Amino acid sequence: MTNSIEELEDTDVIFVIGSNTTEQHPLVGMRIMNAVKNKGAKLMVADPRRIPLAEFAEIYAPITPGSNLALINGMLNVIVTENLYNKEFIENSTEGFENFKASIEKYTPEYVSGIAGIDADIVREMARAYAKAGTSSIVYAMGITQHITGTKNVSALANLSLITGQIGRESTGINPLRGQNNVQGACDVGALPNYLPGYQSLKDEAVHKKFAAVWGEGFSSEEGMTVGEMMDGAINGTTKALYIVGENPMLSDPDLKHVKEAMESLDLLIVQDIFMTETAKLATVVLPGASFIEKDGTFTNTERRVQRIREAIKPVGDSKPDWEILRELTKAMGYPADYESPGDVMEEIRGLVPTYGGITYERLQECGLQWPCPQIDHPGTKFLHSGKFSRGLGKFSINDYEATDQISTAEYPFIMTTGRINEHYHTGTMTRRSWALEREQPHSFMEINPEDAKALGLRERSRVRVTSKVGEIVTEARITDRIKRGVVFIPFHFKEAAVNKLIGKNMDPVVQIPEYKVCAVKVEGVR
Q: Within the chain, which residue ranges are assigned CATH 2.40.40.20?
């Protein structure tokens, strides 16, 4: 997030797109609702489903799955044609405006209406509200990123903040909500295939020398593989081993038949987790990790806040904290790994990652610190890009809309989208072991519009077979007007009806994120 969660409560306009905030980030959702109820903020929500937050929205756009980029470009078109853009900010703080401006000329509200399935006046209303407000914030999640145009979607949102100057100030900005705990922290310290810790370049000689001074010469500095490339490599024989920590790709990855084939093709599969997941059952070796309550360390949350976690109970059975397992494995492979505590690891991080330079365990005793926090006396950074951008000038990008090949046809007339629900989390590894949560939602379901259900002869809780080009599952129908005609929604928490059996291998070409949010399917009643 460029800004802080608490700032949402003082924002004039909040634009939520691709985020079921109240159900999946409830504390952030609460801040948004407080802004609406207590401060009179104008809330705009764009989502194929009428999510709970839409009930608080002044403007709701029930867009067609996969049309996010068209909508955003449409808003940018209105802002340009109606001269609502911030000329001073653009002249002083950005570059590339003229080329960008030419690229969005065709995205008139009427043109966008035909793609997104919403009235042209909704596009105009949203653009005007966002541009004219004193402060506007963008909130998004995986409903923006999990598309073939995911990278373009994010870049287009950046254009929206640049063109209006809604960036670099309190209660503005672009605020992605991370999908899992400590995703931000993992990325910060190098769990990405194309960066060293701190998003430092693999190709920068000075950076390489800095890391070599601590790690020694010969550390791996080649760009790594994405998850999809790893799976393909396992099947074609170029990937021989995988080490999976706290992840369950046998439910969370696309095209599960392909994933299973990949896992079974490996010479060695190591899984480190707190429970015997669907993936762990295929492993050569399972390393029992400790849960958050059994270990010390830090998490970095979605607003860049580094926070301490503390061991409340000793690790159960033979389990160990992840850092200890990794230390012992690293030692066994010949590297000294002389870390005596998570604090030692943190000291190495802050010595190598400039944005963490001023963050110590002592400073985290009372409360968290938001990076960048480069020195010990630095208070942390509440919001980013104050005064200037890290690259100097903010750069406008050109992001043409691309239609997915997952479209309605006679054979596959519905567009399925996936996501999470209030009662469960991700692949259900933890939440489905909670009797209370499992009682609330014990099985899979498919949301379908009443008119579609009637046409198919379905009743509430009818068993249905959902089939895509790559697989099929059986689940039950939930008839609701919260979803528009021609669209169905299925959550992905349930192994008994693993929805990712239906998802193919379409991916964003830049970052290889799968297209989870758009999948053409057919639906049939099962007797």
A: 414-525
pLDDT of residue 424: 86
pLDDT in tens, 256-282: 999 999 999 999 999 999 999 999 999
147/512 Cα distance (integer angstroms): 10
Residue span(s) of the chain under CATH 3.40.228.10 come to 5-177
270 - beta bridge partners? 243, 285
Query: What CA–CA distances, in Å, run from 487 to 144, 335, 490?
Result: 17, 53, 10
Contacts of 182 (CB under 8 A, 6+ apart): 299, 300, 301
Structure tokens at 518: 């758009």
pLDDT tens digits, 425-441: 888 888 888 999 999 98
Instruction: List the structure tokens of 95.
Output: 């570059």
Report the C-alpha gap between 284 and 414 in whole angstroms. Answer: 40
Extract the runs of DSSP E, i.e. beta strands, from 177-266: 241-245
Q: What is the pLDDT of residues 6-47, one digit of tens each?
A: 999 999 999 999 999 999 999 999 999 999 999 999 999 999
Query: Would the pLDDT of 4 be above 90?
Result: yes
Q: Report pTM.
A: 0.94
Other CB atoms within a 10 A radius of the CB of residue 452 amount to 20
Scan for tokens 């790559």, then name that residue.
Answer: 470
Measured from the Cβ of residue 370, the count of other Cβ atoms closer than 10 Å reads 21
- What is the SS3 assignment for 32? helix
Q: Taking Cα atoms as reference points, which of 8, 3, 146, 14 lies closest to residue 68?
A: 146
Q: Does domain 5-177 have CATH number 3.40.50.1820?
A: no
Sign of CA dihedral 311, 426, 151, 79: negative
Give yes or no for residue 52 having a pLDDT over 90. yes
Q: Where does 414-525 sit in CATH, by number?
A: 2.40.40.20
**Over residues 409-434, mean pLDDT:** 90
Pair of tokens at residue 170: 């309190």
- Please report the DSSP string for 397-452 in residue order: --------S----SSS-EEEEEE--TT--TTSTTGGG-HHHHHH--S--EEE-HHH
